Amino acid sequence: MATGLLSTREFNVSKREKFSEWYNTVIYAADLVDSRYNVQGFLVHKPWATRLIRGLYSLFEPELEKDGHEPVVFPTVIPKENFELEKEHVAGFVPQVFWVTRGGEEEFARPLALRPTSETAFYQMFALWIRSPADLPLKLYQSCSVFRYEHETLPFLRGREFLWIETHDVFATEKEARAQLLIDSAIATRVLTEKLGIPLMAFLRPQWDRFPGGLETVAYDVLMPDGKINQVGSTHILGQNFTKAFGVKWTGGDGKEQFPWSTCFGPGIWRMAGALVSVHGDDKGLILPLPVAPVQVVIVPILKSEEKRKEVLDYCLNLQGHLRTHGLRAKVDDSNKSPGFKYNYWELKGVPLRIEVGEREVAQNKITIVRRDTREKLVAESAHAFKHVEEIGAKILDSLRAKAEAELKERITTSATDKRQVKAALDSKGGFVRVAFCSIAMDGEPCASELQEFTQGGKVRGHLLNKKEKPDASEKCVVCGKKAHEIAYVAKQY
Amino acid sequence: MATGLLSTREFNVSKREKFSEWYNTVIYAADLVDSRYNVQGFLVHKPWATRLIRGLYSLFEPELEKDGHEPVVFPTVIPKENFELEKEHVAGFVPQVFWVTRGGEEEFARPLALRPTSETAFYQMFALWIRSPADLPLKLYQSCSVFRYEHETLPFLRGREFLWIETHDVFATEKEARAQLLIDSAIATRVLTEKLGIPLMAFLRPQWDRFPGGLETVAYDVLMPDGKINQVGSTHILGQNFTKAFGVKWTGGDGKEQFPWSTCFGPGIWRMAGALVSVHGDDKGLILPLPVAPVQVVIVPILKSEEKRKEVLDYCLNLQGHLRTHGLRAKVDDSNKSPGFKYNYWELKGVPLRIEVGEREVAQNKITIVRRDTREKLVAESAHAFKHVEEIGAKILDSLRAKAEAELKERITTSATDKRQVKAALDSKGGFVRVAFCSIAMDGEPCASELQEFTQGGKVRGHLLNKKEKPDASEKCVVCGKKAHEIAYVAKQY
């Protein structure tokens, strides 16, 4: 773990009082990333972040595969003409595309985009692969990095290269495409909430905020400690826009051309890492839920007398072996630092469970287990170590989730009836403001723009996907005062 | 598996007689890749290839980690000025670099390279991370794709974007760097030979064939069925060239600057996939060793009477569950194709074991196991399915390895004493020609060039890394006839 120790620094910032400073300190202190790479906006992911990200992929990929998705690896580059086939898509993405224009000394006649997203790569192949309804549904996913020429960047939240998954699904019917939206949303919820303890809100985005080239967008919003929103993923119903643009079709019995429907889902692995760091961390550093912790249990030997040294170390190694046999990522820290140094170090890294082993533990066949989140201690039989780790791991996750859910609930304001009250709520505690709103179709855009300007960034996130909420007949839009057709949520975002 | 079935075609080409046609048919027939993507030299990896490649990564990564390497994710782009710091490196790589020159509408003042290899990215960070010998050894690896503007491409063998692993290791001393070379070579041998049944030859390459910017190169050569060589990976001793170029250093007690030594190792995951396809495949398709087969056991129900249909299918599903519980990738093919179609399909895909289940098997609690490589059948107790699969899987691997080793041995010519005989051996059976050679230091280059021209492509691969071979005092170089100092091997390569 030499690299981990290299740049780990003292960490002592209040997350509650100075979230931004806390975030910008903890990601370096816990040695997740290094931002000193000499291309602005591109990050070096150090081993701890790399393993954390692998953990996130390993939660999502099996869920997608259980739902019938198959993995593929597509080229990183996409020719410019592919973008130009779908007009809204090109307008939406091209301003932030990186262009490859030369190979060796040779200037290309047609530039290649570094993929900002891969619809225009996949659909070119779909046109070759899909010849009849028998070829459908076709559900593929790719785990990869994508590239966007952003002007402001923030580690795990906005980057010029970031890691995600993209699914690209094609269906014979609209009905199946709409059903997939609900499946995607259930997967996002299951992974984020059940496995990572992060509550999310799934919104049908307003029409003016949909994916370039798509029909409808559902996005998954996570509340960050500073009250701003981190959109950790989204699903788009693309309708027949992309299949028509790329000629993905067949001829029906009636001689007419048929175009299938399609969807895409982008679990934002990078943004989930940012959410994990932010939502669960505390003033001592990260707190990682067991399912994604690169080290789940750190075992710290407390070496006093030289004569018992080997005995204590062997006991720790046996314990490590026992836990690893059960599939846990356990690690003895036998470096020559003090126990206190090691406690701080692994707390900063967010390891959920620590086991302390001293001469007394060895003599009595015991272990002392310490929870990262509450620092509660439990002395237990060494023989039952695995059972205890599993149980306490589950408790930590439950407790992190409960805390995050309470925080989210506390930060949903439901009492605002005009734009001043929306602004006041956003200014005082951030989070979501639940409001009556005229419309999330295109005719609501003027009100949304006015609200965003008035609140200095409060955006209409849309209406909840999974809960039918409708305003009473008497309720008025918080902006224009006309009849409200929607219960919408307003929030500032990253 | 819709995508798998889409483009699977009839397959019937003799591998022995027409290897090139066989290869260019089987990779599409088995639905590994699609080369119709509209950027030349860039491939779409379909699900079967993606899973196969993941299997290869999953064999290498733990070996690297056991040896103390930690995973990282570095940016895909590298600024041009980084390349220019190491003169030989820039000369070697820049002619085949893809350049990113624009973001949106903005022209960059300094172009960014798509990494052709990442030394010049890693060393920029090493200069920040390494401050004293206490920071060493530093051993990192990255699993990623790299980009080279090649003019001729061939799937899995030469591509404009291909998948590999790159390690970048830094050591305080030359001795450790040299020891790492042997460790890397042992890892390559262990994975290729033990896990995949592919014998390799590790050569210290001649000085004129080393990595641009490195001191010494060891490369891992695999014999392909057409007698040409597939270099599946290499390790380079970079000496202090890169640490000096990038200012990776510290000041010693004597006030002098100290520069560490470094190495890099590139297991060519893509080329290993090409080797797997080629070395083990037969006229029916791929043959994949158990450790990397995306499906290890396919279970084919043989449905006769309608009344027993459910019983047979349930029996298959139970068996699948039993094998999966033991960690095997088992799959019931319950599609509505005929058993014969399914046999051909899964043989083409290279699934090492097939289990056939008909009414008789169900009545007797039996299964019929068929080996992909020999097509031998074994009727066994269903209750012992896992044990049999494990045993037969190991036998298949042993038998694939023995066959490949025999083929390699048969194709090493040891009798050539002049360049005409070298040419005759290469022309008649390809493979390696073991020769006495004047020198693999720079002074041997004129002989190597002459030999390459004379044999139309026979290259001096260097001398064996792990076997001390020296010519007798009387032996003469096969080219110049002067005293030979080396036993070298000559072969044509991909």
Looking at this protein, list some descriptive labels:
494 residues, Translation Initiation Factor IF3, disordered N terminus, alpha+beta, Rossmann fold, BirA Bifunctional Protein, domain 2, homodimer
Write up what this structure looks like:
The structure is a homodimer of 494-residue chains. Chain A is globular and about 85 Å long. In chain A, the strands form five sheets. An eleven-stranded mixed β-sheet of chain A has the order 3-7-8-14-11-10-9-22-23-21-20. A five-stranded mixed β-sheet of chain A has the order 16-15-17-18-19, sandwiched between helices. By secondary structure, the first copy, chain A, is of the alpha+beta class. Chain A has three domains: 11-280, BirA Bifunctional Protein, domain 2 (2-Layer Sandwich), CATH 3.30.930; 295-394, Anticodon-binding domain (Rossmann fold), CATH 3.40.50.800; 412-491, Translation Initiation Factor IF3 (2-Layer Sandwich). Chain A is built from 15 helices and 23 strands. Chain A has helices at residues 2-7, 19-29, 47-66, 80-83, 87-93, 119-129, 174-196, 241-246, 269-280, 309-325, 339-349, 359-364, 385-410, 419-429, 445-454; strands at 33-34, 44-45, 70-71, 77-79, 98-103, 106-114, 138-147, 161-171, 201-204, 216-223, 229-239, 250-251, 257-258, 261-267, 297-301, 330-332, 353-357, 366-371, 377-381, 412-413, 432-437, 459-464, 486-491.
